[in-house]
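Rotation project, supervised by the postdoc (A.L.). Task for the rotation student: set up a whole-complex structure prediction and record inputs and outputs verbatim in this book. Inputs entered:
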Amino acid sequence: MIEVSLKGTAGSFGLDASFSVPAQGVTAIWGPSGSGKTTLLRAMAGLTRLAGYVRIGADVWQDRQRFVPVHKRRIGYVFQEASLLPHLSVRGNLDFALKRNGDHTVDFDGLVERLKLSALLNRSVGRLSGGERQRVALARALMSAPEILLMDEPLSSLDGEAKAEIVPMIASLSRDTALPVLYVSHDAYEVERLADRVLRMSKGRIIETPDTAFNASLDGLSEAQVRALAEAALKAGIKV
Amino acid sequence: MTDIASAIHVTVLLATVTTLSLLVIATPIGWWLSRNRSLFKDIITAIIALPIVLPPTVLGFYLLVAMGPKSPLMVLLHPFGIRTLNFSFAGLVIGSVIYSLPFAIQPIRNAFESLGRRPFDVAATLRATPLDTFFTVALPMARKGFLTAALLVFAHTVGEFGVVLMIGGAIPGKTEVVSIRIWQLVEQLDWPNAHRLAGGLLVFAFCVLLSLLLIDRRWSQRHD
Amino acid sequence: MTSRFTLHKRALMTAILCLSAFSAPAFAGDVQVAVAANFTEPAKEIAAAFETKTGSHVIMSFGSSGAFYSQIQQGAPFEVFLSADAERPTRLEAETLGVKGTRFVYAYGTLALWSATPGLVDGKGAILTKGNFQHIAIAEPAAAPYGLAAVETMKKLGLYDTLSPKIVKGSSIAQTYGFIDSGSAELGFVALSQIYKQNKGSRWIVPAADYTPIDQQAILLNPGANDPTAKAYIAFLKSPEAVKIIKSYGYTVH
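Outputs recorded:
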């Protein structure tokens, strides 16, 4: 299980968010700009320090007595943009992660092929398109053999074509690996396509958790159950 | 002509040693100053900038006193048989380092500051410790600052006169630099040699600076 | 000339001098003099006597004869030049930058070996042969005749090559004095006039035979050619009153 309870102010922002979700599949954190999604994600990673409790599976990363520094947490983090190290090539960025992943084995070639990076390996970072950059960032985060993947609006600065290319990659990756993903976005299409469950945020608080929200998976439900769910969804204001 | 060659040798050696020393000294200071501003750090920055404001002969005078045999700092060296650091190459290096300190710290600090937080966040999420991050991310990304610092310090030291005049003693082969030699030639009314030496100094400094700038160009081309 | 007038002129001249070295020529009633560093103290006393006597004001600059020579060549507004040597006034006269016939020896300099440490320098200069010191200071021979005289003395004693590595050169005789006084150099060659009036340290007065006589010459420069105050100042330099002052500092006057 992933258990998080964080409270505090980061800059001009007040956050008070608690949730508990299974440590598997894609959990989307969805809400309008300024609702605190990025702050929550950064606080989970330890990049921003707020008071509270963060536990991933058996690892407690933060509680009242301790705060595990970021570089000691096995997280993979994909930023919205501008996160590739400019003094290294694509290969260099991937190796940077590989070298520091603590001897966990990673299928380098498999990952490179899966994210279609083979032709880009020796490219310098400045010569990549937006979509290419984010694919590299994703591959790099996975090279560090994380326990959990945190993605902060990874596709919002990309055009429709790049998005359409990458979304399925993320979907298949999360399906094929046992890696839990926390996916922050304000885009309904991405959420719909990728999320196994949704945490909805507004003004620094989580206003809906999977227990109360519409679950995207309809497999194995009877018609009556689907209708009930649809009504609940409409009532909750989620667009279907 | 050998005294001119010796003066050139001392000048180049002094400029090189000063530049390398300052790159080492200024890096941790520039790094520290680039993290979170505070009033204390602003005060330190102002103190560091003082050598720019003081006339070189004034700076040289204070150095003369500080490195003279009666100075409390020199008393510590007496047991090692060192009476004074004046008139020594080591003394010149100390003087040059202080004289050019702000020219090294400022560009390095700016380079670190301009990195922002993102690269550090990225490195941390990739399991890099703060020390690791400093050497594998911050330093390489800030290398333009180091190049600028090296350029400025080297040029500044080659042109140094007032400070060297005060603490050097013009000892051939040890503290007689080109700028002093030119001055001596002028005093002797030997204009032709003075012109030659000054011209040579300009050409040399130009070549060094140009080389450093060409390196900078290659870096920019490779990583854009 | 009322004192109020002089006061305003004085303030104005000081302001102009502070702003730029090459400014308008001096007004009558003031004289601008370039003085070799070694003659600083006697020059100040002579100026005071001159001012009391005539009511004119003497504006002095102190420094190395070499620097003054270059500046005068480039048009510096000095009216009288008191050099530490004979060569530079001679050249200025030849270059028609100085007024012909006004050049004369105002003092003969004496070289002294001096240390701020009592007992270090003996009355015969044997310390030079003993050589138990790290640094010996002289004035830059290229810039000051006292430096040249120091080199001559050491060569005459056959000690120049041995002492060479220990020689440190001050940019002027004043800086040389500073090196020795502060102890950075344990001893060195200075002008006797710099140490004549005090008893500090230990000294050896170098015999005149050991070096080329240091005739310190003065000359009236073109900016002062028509200035009665400048001419009066030169005349005063030769007067018994001034000669008395000069001798009191250890110079010889013929």
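Student's summary: Chain C is about 40% helix and 20% strand.
Supervisor addendum: Chain C has a mean pLDDT of 87.
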